[in-house]
Amino acid sequence: MKNYTSTMLLHFLVLAASIFQAKSYFSEEKYPEESKMQPPTVVIAIIARNAAHSLPYYLGALERLNYPKGRISVWAATDHNSDNTTAILKEWLTVMQKFYHYVEWRPMDQPTSYAGELGPKHWPNSRYEYVMKLKQAALNFARKLCSLFAANKSVIAPMLDSQGAYSNYWCGITPQGYYRRTAEYFPTRHRHRVGCFPVPMVHSTMLLDLRKEGMKKLAFYPPHEDYSWPYDDIIVFAFSCRAAEIQMYLCNKERYGYLNVPAKPHHSLEDDRLNFVHVHLESMIDGPPMYPSRFVHMFPKQRDLMGFDEIYLINLRRRPDRRDRMLFSLNELEIDVKVVDAVDGNALNSSDIKFLGVDLLPGYYDPFSGRTLTKGEVGCFLSHFYIWKEMVDMQMDKALIFEDDVRFQSNFKRRVLRLMEEVEQVELDWDIIYLGRKQVNPGKEEPVENVRNLVMADYSYWTLSYAISQQGAQKLLNAEPLSKMLPVDEFLPIMYDKHPNEDYKSHFPNRNLQAFSTRPLLVQPCHYAGDPQWVSDTETSTLWDDDSVRTDWRGSHKTLKGSPPPEMLSAAYRDEL
Q1: Is residue 545 assigned to a domain?
Q2: Which of 127, 219, 485, 550 is most exposed, with minimal Cβ within 10 Å?
Q3: What is the residue range of 546's domain?
Q4: What is the pLDDT of residues 276-295, one digit of tens each?
Q5: Is residue 382 part of a domain?
Q6: 316 and 267, same structural domain?
Q7: How far is CA 61 from CA 100, 228, 388, in A?
Q8: Measured between alpha carbons, how far is 273 from 52 in angstroms, rounded to an integer?
Q9: pTM, to two decimals
Q10: What number of CA atoms fall less than 13 Å from residue 205's CA on the CB side?
Q11: Closest by alpha carbon to 43, among 168, 151, 160, 149?
């Protein structure tokens, strides 16, 4: 026993010596750091129905998502389609499945409609139930894969921009589960307050952190046993969160993306497509822009002239960004256009101006700043003037003119087509119809009988867009305006005898232009004076006869954003056109 103990002690001392030696040996070595954790595995659930018009852009955004595709699983389902949605999703998944961690595909080709459905945009209870079941299946799929999220909120949604005031959240909900207006909604929607805020409802796009213990109680389907609110998938889930004591959050720190306004039950797929086109056009102004997937075939747009002999886009060559955006927008609207290189007033010298026969209207001063004409305004006037001249020379019956800084209102093309059809039906004697301007006296503008949403134009600023007849172009040319020039948006009201300055009008005796305007207006400026992205080549210039005097917008109220009358009209009235 004694020998055994001695032997064990010897072994211990040798081992101890070895350990101390090892510690001494490795103390000068650098220990390798632990490798970084991979990003969390994320499940993206796609549920699409009759979305062929918008799906390529959604998938394109998904492709460009700044997240490793190998850490993303895609769960995609589609059903009850009467368009090409199934084929588009299948085409995309076939190409992209090799890049993603896992793809699950759940198509249902038949039937193409739900029982009791009035149309493809109607939501009977059977549709709500099926969508809730799909969301629950996606949730179960995500739980099975044990998805991890870096965010520390159980349910959080990025605020999505859309038409008007619509978005993917509510700031208030009634005890019966209906939407409730709150003072917080619009400051949040317009990003007057920025951050991540608790809200009673988020929908359409959200992140669920399934690591949280309380998330086990969440369900899209079946509804909670105490549920008595309206049968609607987003309200069912909001109730589920409330019952599980899980707070929903909304984050609006960035512009994350876009959301189409839900179509009404009586709307068609074409109505839904046009709504998406409007959201798409808005994205080109405010960003981020939407681009379609590279792996989905899209049919080319079928552009036309909407019944006009020509449609003109006035653009300065040194503003290619504006040209590109307008050409893209008009292509999406399926409107054909002829680009006219604007006369760059800032490139004109005194010899050029004299050669062109340009002279200032005696006594003209800007009504706000007191300055005279700028070279930018000279270039703008000449750009419009040459179009009027081309119209007369080419014997065009009517044309449509756009400047390159316009924001299109929803259903623009459909509204223009209907307007011109009604104008023709009543045989209206017209010379010019404003589609975009800044109204000064909207209360004085009388509606035109038997033509919806058309008024007799009063004094206004801007020439954003207008239709003009050959007769109207000839009247403007006959006035010989180059030798008594003032800004083109001041000249037009003189010619239809609505300008408040009698001295200016006295230089143009034949003031018989028949001028009208849409109400509400169909285009607005992209930006206003003082906005970060606002640029004016007419206000920010030099005086027409003195390059040493610089001008800017600060002395003029023309370019400031006022309270445009369309925003004061009721929603129902705005939607009529």
Answers
A1: yes
A2: 550
A3: 310-576
A4: 999 899 888 877 678 888 88
A5: yes
A6: no
A7: 15, 37, 43
A8: 9
A9: 0.74
A10: 14
A11: 149
